Amino acid sequence: MENKSKEPIYVTKTYLPEKAEYETYLDKIWQNGWLTNEGPLVKSLQIKLQNFLDVPYIQYTTNGTIALQLAIKVLELKGEIITTPYSYVATASSIIWEGNKPVFCDISAKDLCIDPNIIEDKITDNTCAILATHVYGIPCSVEAIEKIARKNNLKVIYDGAHAFGVNLNNKSIFNYGDLSTASFHATKIFHTVEGGAIFSKNKALAEKIRHTKSFGHKGDDHKYLGINGKNSEFHAAMGLCNLKRIDDIVEARKNLFEIYMEGLKMLPLTFISIPENVRYNYAYFPVIFENAEARERTQEFLEKQSIFPRRYFFPSINTIAYMPRGNCPVSEEISDKILCLPFYPQLNDKETNRILTAVKKSFER
Ligand SMILES: *Cc1c(COP(=O)(O)O)cnc(C)c1O
After folding, report:
1. Angle (deg, nearest 10), helices 64-74 and 89-97
2. Which SUPFAM superfamilies does this UniProt record tie to the protein (predicted)?
3. pLDDT tens column, 205-222
4. Pocket test for ligand 1, best of 183, 191, 198 (most atoms within 8 A of CB)
């Protein structure tokens, strides 16, 4: 008899490097006696990320949310920021936290990113910026957004929390917009336990971010209103370990992506499509059902078998009680019909088959 193990499978599993490798960095921290405040490991991680991603300036931060808040702060944005309702709540909550107002602009069903065709309808005299998310790592319509921004004198920030390692037209996605941010949280494809970054393209802004994330002063010169957005040597050490493996991680995700596509393509599901000019990172495996009932049926069926996909993103941010409303029918509908399936390189063949079989069976009843 086959042993029908019902070990739970969750939507993701954090990648952990060899413990011994992490310990070699711990030894360095003990030798240096330097734990935080732009120590040698943080500096080394920043340089390695700068080279790996091919970006001019990077500031490593405590997390991806503080990176968004710092981006809004250093650009001195005041007023309405046009943003997407289809993202993690941190995108819009950062806008409010910084004293601005999110104005929700619906998404395109094609790429689940902000729909550039309706952005201009949302512009008022108070609009100061556009903050858009590269959803699941698929780039926004950056050219259309840039055109609108230039014409209307708006700043552009991209929430690139999902987009580590993604290139558009052979250029890092983090090089688009006035500023881009990333999250290096444990659930993301490249992680430093907690962590994030801001990418900028000019030296003055990079320096401003560097000081703003460190209480706003340089020595005794208090130049900016600052905050503590620094990260530690221990977090940087995790990043240094994981960066060495990132190419293998993305390759393994690509293989798994192809196995899922092959296994599920006959079902009435819609998958994300990767544009030709994009080098993708295979960060997530979302599937869109024909309707909410079908999504719920599969979700319940999987959960009974201890497989836990995640409704991500749900709810559409414009429906959250403390958020301003917005007319976003596409975002609301997608968030009702979408599930992210368990998707991470540590899944073995047996687990992968268990997931694919369960999804297929959920359609048979
Ligand atoms: C994870 C995530 C964030 C927040 O990043 P943290 O590092 O967890 O603060 C912001 N935006 C999006 C789209 C995310 O997925």
Report:
1. 40
2. PLP-dependent transferases
3. 999 999 999 999 988 999
4. 183
- As a whole number, the mean pLDDT across the chain is 97
Cα–Cα distance, 86 to 159 (Å, whole number) = 12
Q: How many CB atoms lie within 10 A of CB 358?
A: 20
DSSP string covering 57-95: EEEEES-HHHHHHHHHHHTT--SEEEE-SSS-HHHHHHH
Helix H or strand E encompassing 157: strand 155-159
Residue 13 tokens, joined: 């599993």
Six token digits for residue 48: 């390695």
Residue 1: which pLDDT band, with cuts at 50, 70 and 90? very low
Contacts of 172 (CB under 8 A, 6+ apart): 53, 54, 55, 166, 199
Pair 186, 14: CB distance under 8 Å: yes
Q: From the CB of 94, is ligand 1 less than 6 Å away? A: no
3-state secondary structure of 189: coil
What is the spatial distance between Cα 60 and Cα 66, in angstroms, rounded to a whole number?
Answer: 10
Q: How far is CA 240 from CA 73, 133, 248, 267, in A?
A: 28, 26, 15, 41
Residue 219 CA, ligand 1 centroid: distance in Å? 31
The verdict on the CB of residue 84 being under 6 Å from ligand 1 is: no
Domains of the chain: 9-13+245-364 (3.90.1150.10), 19-243 (3.40.640.10)
Torsion of CA 190, 192, 198, 199, to 10 degrees: -50
Phi, psi (rounded to 5 degrees) for 310 = -130, 135
- Does residue 62 line the site of ligand 1, with CB under 6 A? no
Q: What is the pLDDT of residues 309-353, one digit of tens each?
A: 999 999 999 999 999 999 999 999 999 999 999 999 999 999 999
d(CA 336, CA 123): 28
d(CA 198, CA 177): 11
